[in-house]
Write a structure and sequence with these properties.
globular, binds S-adenosylmethionine, alpha/beta, single chain
Length: 204
């Protein structure tokens, strides 16, 4: 069975409970911070596209052709969608005011390389906004996530439950700030190349 095709076909339906439990609000909160020339990595089926507001055209990337085929239908006006991995972004250095990622760093093959690429394509005063699900802070929950990950990633398109996602951003030289923890599962926040992105904070 082609699990990527299956995950892409079921993805929107699978996200309904998470979105109803509050992740839709998190998407909106993260995405509405996007300003200027915007890049979204790992756009999936394009669930974030409707939340971009007040931006120039959005450049979205997604490596999975099945996800991409759903996202195309949600593309707005002048926006562009490219098949690309976050580890090899086909854009010049210092080219985006904003980069956005929601729920991608659990799946990306080389998350440190992806964070380094985000740093590379961000303008010196650019901001990276994210909402991700890193490994739990609670040690028992973290242990359960580590045990479950080998099976979970087979079922969920490569998703890891046990990644220390903020550590990749920091290791790539990004300054992480405005962290909001949502339940014990999700984390939203901002990362940047310089203090120039430090204001304003993550808008609610
Ligand atoms: C859980 S889905 C999230 C999709 C979307 N960002 C959202 O919030 O609904 C994870 C996405 O990451 C994508 N992905 C997997 N490997 C990737 C990589 N190396 N670079 C960028 N995206 C990747 C998957 O194809 C999938 O669309």
């Amino acid at each position: 069975m082609n699990t990527h095709l299956l995950v892409a076909s079921l993805y929107d339906a699978l996200m309904v409970p998470a979105d109803k439990l509050g992740f839709e609000q998190v998407r909106r909160m993260v995405v509405r911070n996007a300003k200027g020339k915007v890049l979204e990595i790992g756009a999936g089926t394009g669930l974030n596209f409707k939340h971009f507001d007040g931006t120039d055209c959005v450049f979205a990337t997604e490596p999975d052709p099945y996800m991409l085929s759903h996202a195309v239908a949600r593309l707005r006006d002048c926006s562009a969608l490219t098949r690309a991995k976050a580890e090899e972004l086909p854009f010049p250095d210092d080219s985006f005011d904003t980069v956005v990622s929601t729920l991608t760093f659990c799946t990306i093959g080389d998350p440190l390389k992806a964070a380094e690429e985000i740093r590379r394509v961000l303008k010196p005063d650019g901001c990276f906004y994210f909402a991700e699900h890193p490994v739990a802070e609670n040690p028992m929950l973290a242990r359960a996530e580590k045990i479950a990950t080998p099976i979970w990633k087979q079922l969920a398109g490569g998703c890891h439950l046990d990644r220390d996602i903020l550590s990749y951003f920091k290791s790539a030289g990004l300054i992480v700030s405005d962290i909001i923890r949502l339940d014990s599962f999700f984390v939203a926040g901002k990362a940047a190349k310089s203090e120039a992105c430090a204001k304003p904070g993550l808008a609610a």
